[in-house]
Amino acid sequence: MINDVNLNYLSPEIAMVALAIIIILGDLVIKNRQLLTLITFAGLLVPVMLTINLWGTTGESFNGALVVDQFALFFKFLVMFAVFIVILSSQDYLHRFTRYTGEYYGLILLSAAGMMLVAGTRELISMYLALELTTFSIVALAAFLKTKESTESAIKYLVLSAVTSAVMLYGIVLVFGLTGSTHFHGIAEWIGNSNVSSTSLILDSGTLGDGAIGFIGFLFILAGFGFKVATVPFHMWVPDVYEGAPTPITAYLSVASKAAGFAILLRVLYEVFQPIQPDWQLLIAVLAVISMFTGNLLAIVQSNIKRLLGYSTIAHAGYILIGVTVGNTLGQSGVLFYLAVYTITNLGAFASVIVISNLTNSEKTSDFIGIGRVAIFPAIVLTIALISLTGAPPTAGFIGKVYLFNAAVQSDYTWLAIVGVVNSVISAYYYWKVIRIMYQSSGASTDTSGDPNGNRVSASMNISLGIALVGILILGIAPDWILGFVENAVAIVQTTYPTA
Amino acid sequence: MVTQTSLNYVPVVVAAIVSGTVLSLLFILAAVVAPKRRTMISAIPYESGIPPKGSTWKQINLRYYLFAVFFLVFDIEAVFLFPWALTYLGIGAIAFFEMVIFLGILFLGLVYAWKKGVLKWT
Amino acid sequence: MESVTGAIAFWILAVAIIGCAVLVLTVPNIFHSALFLVGCLGGIAGIYILLNADFLAAVQILIYIGAVAVMLIFGIMLTQDVVKSNVSNHYRIPALGLSGAFLVILLTAIFGTNWQTQSPSTEASTGSIADALFSNYILPFELSSVVLLTAIIGAIVIAKER
Lengths: 500, 122, 162
Fold this sequence. Notes:
The complex is a heterotrimer of chains A (500), B (122) and C (162). Chain A is an all-alpha fold and 500 residues long.
């Protein structure tokens, strides 16, 4: 009866959960915070090694609930990289909550396990549970500061994610009721065999066709993913949650959660709902356009840097959706590459925001005046990161956008590419405003409010800033190796179905 | 619509009807037979002889909530034990280890809560 | 004869569920709303029994009526102004229109769909659910324990004051 359990395929996630439990229980006996951090870093090597060990393997386990392919492994690496940088950048932030260090690391690792599983699942129930694992941990992490804003952000995230989860579950139920399967290949098979064609889907000669309920279910599942990746109709939580949550958690949420959301979005769209692509392609394109415009236009009026980056993340979800719309190998690999670029860029931006707001005791962009002369290195990293977010050369963001827009043009989505370029120009305005403020000489630029001794930048902080800086530049100047990597990764998604 | 299995629930329905009837009969009986003499004192809720203080609609301690969470978690665990008990012989040793892992992970949660002193009421 | 009793039972339960649901929305005291919600959930357990889904019915009673209702009531009792909390707002009519439109769309779609139906099996379902749960669905089963563990840790981190 049990014929298909390959624990090897699940080993990175198992290691992640085990590490989380060890850290959380270890916190009860180990009182030294440094030692705990060290154990976390050392332990993080285990899932990384296990993922490397799986490299090149392709296969399923748990009756198709778990899949190992380059696509999943790519996202596993991305999530683990984000965890590494986030924990590294947390070192200058942890003094704000000394008590729960172990839980802080543990919850980050648990949610990472959820995200890694999201990228590698092919079954709706596992997918739902993995997404919930991610959400629960992030809710607790968002509330960590226990200030009014932090609690508010946790409540908003919890309530809105519960609502979208319920909607998504309802969608899953409808799809299951129609197709009789929770496995991606089962649903894909049903759609392939049924007479549901793109034209009969919504209105079939006046009456609602068979596919209508499936399409409603599909839309509901899409709403759940939309929440995770923060596209426009489901973006309301972003600014408040980003502002209130601890900054490293905001960074984590903006990159890892988004990456996992796009991973499952791509997989579901192109492995399950590929046959009805004409029905949703335009919908995704419209979501991309309104996400870009909403994010960029609202970001202009923000005065808090975390809110600004929050709106910018909505806009970036829009850019990435261009690649999702296009959907061929070029578009999908564009999505993966852009996510890698975005991850490293945003982690760099948030790391420097942590340092700078520690110095200025403020998250307002107007208080960053003249910081470029005081905190030279963080200001440089933030500048480069913002240039990369704009999409100007020689940074990673430039290559990412060129790749995405090129994919759109190649597939007759030139109008989407034009919208993307227009939005990049809009975004340049508010990103560069921040850069200008940083290098402005203010009347009291020498007075940096707060004593220099208490605000020493730790070595780990500098390491994470350095990694981000080097990463942004390397991906901007020599992106070939990772481009080959992502093209390889999406090739598997392309060819796996509908042959099963 | 009704098949053999749901007929198993007929005793449940009968029990519900009988107990409901008896209960309402008792209330009706009390309302009809008991002498009515309402004074201020007889309207006060009975709290073992101590006069009640304040409103009953007040905020409760946050600690209760943690206990509710634990109850929910271990209730779900208990629910999984029912099908497990049924399938245990069919699937065999693997089912046993599956449940050991499941319970083990939850047990770690209990250990954590216990060590954190959440279970203590001080 | 059997189908008649079944139909009677179904309609009694249906009326009770919808009545409770309406009361959840309309009673002024949110605490009473919660109690009516419990009634609603109990009615759904009854529907499960009528459909021979005995395991689901047990889950419904144990988890929803048992644990979730307790959570819900504790949650309400944690708020500061318990009695006056079921406040109305200005969006009643738009909300009614929206949910009404949604109901129409959903009903049309449901009745227009050729569902893959099976007559409910006459055997108890717990056994087959168990077989599926512990063979094909091991991954979600074990994953649920990790999710529950996360819930415990998260709740302690958030709620423990010291």
